[in-house]
Amino acid sequence: MIGALSGRARLLTRSQADAEDLVQDTLMHAYAGYRSFEAGTNFKAWLYRIMRNQWINAHRRSERRPCEVFDGLVSESAVVHRAGRDQLSSAEDRVLQNMPDPAVMDALAALSEEHRLVLYYADVEDRSYREVADLMGIPVGTVMSRLHRARRQMRRELAGVRRDPCLGGDRGR
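That's the RNA polymerase sigma factor sequence above. Prediction below.
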């Protein structure tokens, strides 16, 4: 069974290390959610579905991470100095450094509060549909539809905005 999972993970990730991580995540989630498995159904298909969902979630998380760039000209002491300075910065400084692009803020402001909250919990805090539903006191299906609509509206609002080179290009959409 592990061999079959490893092979499928390798096809999805195209990397041995990532495949091993995916198999481990799959088995952990399967163990944690074993109560949801229905006796008499296909156990292998159940594991494959968990694996696919884990792979999709990992892919989505990686797309939201900022682009990392290494500059070989930066000395180690400069990195240490900056790390120390960042730890001493005020809360206001950290907020200002992490402010999103004005176009993104405008697009978020155009969303209704219920759509903005669902988008925040799901995409910024990386919560599951179930967690968002529990937080907001609404059904999971409502979370899914609101999230879909919020993302669609964000895409429309940001359609003409130039893209960040870290996210795949410097061209307008």
